[in-house]
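A favour, since you know our structure tokens better than I do. Just paste the record in under my message, thanks.
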Amino acid sequence: MREGVSPSRDTRPGAAMRFMSTLCAVALITPVAGFSQTAVPDDARVDVGSRVRIAAPVFSTRQKEVATVVSVTPDTVVLRFGATTAYRSLASSDITSLEVSRGTHTRKAKGAIWGLLIGAGTAAALGYALYEEPKCMSAEPFGCIDILGPISSPGSTAAISAVGGGILGAVIGTLLGMRATDSWVPATVSLR
């Protein structure tokens, strides 16, 4: 046996080529569903009563409009906008973008994390920048009373400020994240 060559490793010149050929053959014979074979998920279909966000050139604004579907046919979608009782028909060919709501969600956790990070960072920077040496007059009746202990450096001031700022930021971020928003997914006009 030659030195430096592992006995379990195949060093013949054709071994790598056979391995690559086998790997390519396995990849080619693996069954894969084509785009035309995949079914549209139920939550991405537009049904009567669905809340949709739709864009079409017939709208006066360039933004997507939010509406409720009143009826659906293969070539027409009838919509009701907001709380009005008036309906509007749109040809399916006029729709440039269509999304259906999968429900609402809040961003409380994300808001709390961002609030914590921003609040702690800002408070730490301010605590460090605004640090002053403590001045204590021992002639006072009770001497020097420090509630949080001796704050002897800008770093300890920054750490204490970061804790307070982080808590305040997390509370504010949670409150801002409580607003419910829709989860939109691309949809198609199809009948079941």
